[in-house]
Amino acid sequence: MTLRTLRAQAEARLRDAGIDTPELDARYLLEHALTLTRTDFVTKAEQIIPDDAAARALALVERRAAREPVGRILGHREFWTIDLALNPDTLEPRPDTETVVEAVLAAIPDRKAPLRLLDLGTGTGCILLALLSELPNAGGLGIDLSPLAVEAAAGNAARNGLAGRVRFQTGDWATGIADRFDIVVSNPPYIPSADIAALEPEVRDHDPLRALDGGPDGLEPYRIIAAELPRLLVPGGLAAFEVGQGQAEQVAALVEAQGLAETAILCDLGGIKRCVRARNGL
């Protein structure tokens, strides 16, 4: 069949499977399977695709139709201006998390300052690496409970030319960390335990449970991190967290109870309160 016909078939399969973005997902999968560029879909639309190559592409389409995320199928995901490899122990970065990056950058008066950053529950390293890509003289430390996640994050630092300014290590939140930082960020697990079964299959079946489950009310990781902020942050240091829908005010109250001030709540592109930012007044 031609590339045009194959693309139409892939889009129709995903549309019938109830995928929200069948055209976009089909393009990503065909680009990957057939080593195409976006322009090729126009310039090579009538090119005949060999049967084995078409079968290879349609096999990926079937995985997406079964609700496996595109990023998991491809093995990597774009975030901010960087490209991140995934593994089974990393949460797949999502555009909502870029709200945290934007919130931090908006609060930094001098992006060339030699800032020290800490990312708790770093996963792929997405937040920390995105920030370092914008802060040329900053350095960072990323912590994750999973050795596989730490391995992925370190690989992503090298993948994006940032390995010289960042270190990743396994750890249980901030346990054992004696340094103080200018910026502390986190996208911790925040889904209430009882809500996990009702999540979309792309999340429930493919993201690691430990990166989702925030305890009975979804706030347990925030309580742990908030209690550590006064000793982790330099005076005037900045903290910023991703939060789940409906959690922003509660998380803001948790950090304010630890003496942080200048609290701000920022929305993602969908208008959902997605990030809590505050400064250490101590």
UniProtKB/TrEMBL annotation:
Pfam families linked to this entry: Methyltransf_31, PrmC_N
GO molecular function, one term: nucleic acid binding
Keyword S-adenosyl-L-methionine attributed: yes
Keywords associated with the record: Methyltransferase, S-adenosyl-L-methionine, Transferase
Name of the top EC class for this enzyme: transferase
List of residues binding S-adenosyl-L-methionine: G121, T122, G123, T124, G125, D144, W173, N187
Chemical reaction(s) catalysed: L-glutaminyl-[peptide chain release factor] + S-adenosyl-L-methionine = N(5)-methyl-L-glutaminyl-[peptide chain release factor] + S-adenosyl-L-homocysteine + H(+)
Amino acids binding substrate: N187, P188, P189, Y190
Record bears the keyword Methyltransferase: yes
Domain Methyltransferase: 115-237
All residue ranges annotated as the Release factor glutamine methyltransferase N-terminal domain in the record: 6-75
GO biological process: methylation
E.C. no: 2.1.1.297
Record NCBIfam families: hemK_fam (TIGR00536), RF_mod_PrmC (TIGR03534)
Family (UniProt): Belongs to the protein N5-glutamine methyltransferase family. PrmC subfamily.
HAMAP family: RF_methyltr_PrmC
Function description: Methylates the class 1 translation termination release factors RF1/PrfA and RF2/PrfB on the glutamine residue of the universally conserved GGQ motif.
The name this protein goes by in its record: Release factor glutamine methyltransferase
Source organism phylogeny: Bacteria, Pseudomonadati, Pseudomonadota, Alphaproteobacteria, Rhodospirillales
